[in-house]
Specification:
With about 150 residues, the chain is mainly alpha-helical. The protein has a single domain, classed as dinb family like domain (Four Helix Bundle (Hemerythrin (Met), subunit A)). The protein is built from six helices and two strands. The chain has helices at about 5-25, 25-30, 40-55, 65-75, 85-105, 130-150, and strands at about 115-120, 125. A hairpin with a 5-residue loop joins strand 1 (about 115-120) and strand 2 (about 125). The protein is globular and about 40 Å long. The chain starts with a helix and ends with a helix.
Amino acid sequence: MMTENIFEVMLQNRRNLHAILTKTPKEKLLKIPEGFNNNIYWNIAHTVVTQQILIYKFSGLQMRVPDDLIAKFSKGTVPDGTATDEEIMVVADFLISTAEWLIEDYDTALFQTFNEYATSARVTLRNVEDAIAFNLFHEGLHIGQISLLLKQ
């Protein structure tokens, strides 16, 4: 059982990312500074996609974001330095909606099964609660990366 605080932390992280995404000039969002292999925008969109994979896909459920976003921002992808204003707004909307949907879906016991998954951080996720907790850690890593990129 997840505590309300885990969800509150998740929502606040997402609000913070939403503010960065919507208030940072597009050129800065898309810039890949020397010594980096990604940009602010990729890191933010990657958090949306990864949450869907870790929690919904491994629970055997339909992911709630389009396949093209999954393909573009999954682990192992690299940004091409472009994004339309429309795509940026879609990602901004998904930052909040996917967090809210997760809370609703968890509270209504939608997650009944889970396919165990060993992460690249050598953490094995055995149930949806593990996936939610690990996702919070994963988003924290990317928030740190975003903070570095914002200073460039």
